[in-house]
Amino acid sequence: xxxxxxxxxxxxxxxxxxxxxxxxxxxxxxxxxxxxxxxxxxxxxxxxxxxxxxxxxxxxxxxxxxxxxxxxxxxxxxxxxxxxxxxxxxxxxxxxxxxxxxxxxxxxxxxxxxxxxxxxxxxxxxxxxxxxxxxxxxxxxxxxxxxxxxxxxxxxxxxxxxxxxxxxxxxxxxxxxxxxxxxxxxxxxxxxxxxxxxxxxx
Length: 202
Known about the structure:
The protein is mostly beta strands. It contains no helices and 10 strands.
């Protein structure tokens, strides 16, 4: 009878991964119901670095300038901005931890009125079926100066998501008309690891 060899069990061991609990998500695609094209107020501005200044205080949150071509605003002259929306798509599903928001930041006439006051925040795995995180979520008015840092953070608690959408928007005008905008949005995801895996061969 020929020699026969086999394995009954293989265990894999490794050192604990030394990685931060969360990381900032990159490669985000931003789209919107409309945008102020004539003034370069594109949805993509919200996920780019344009308008972000040096982080002088070293807190990890850089201030944003007041140049409105570095931000997003819906097409103006809306009868009611509640039907406007902005959406963010990640390159893959993530364990979503939190979202940071820099509001519309402009010192011009009526600029503060176009800042986002309220929105419904939803998330999705496929961009079709949505789960509501907050309705409404409230946003803080900006300072209208280049020292403006993100002051609004929204926790997602590690939910699995590939899309985030802000809709049912409201600005700071009494009739909710004309326009609404945001300067920047950052997202952070949680690192996930596999551990304790045992392979058995029979």
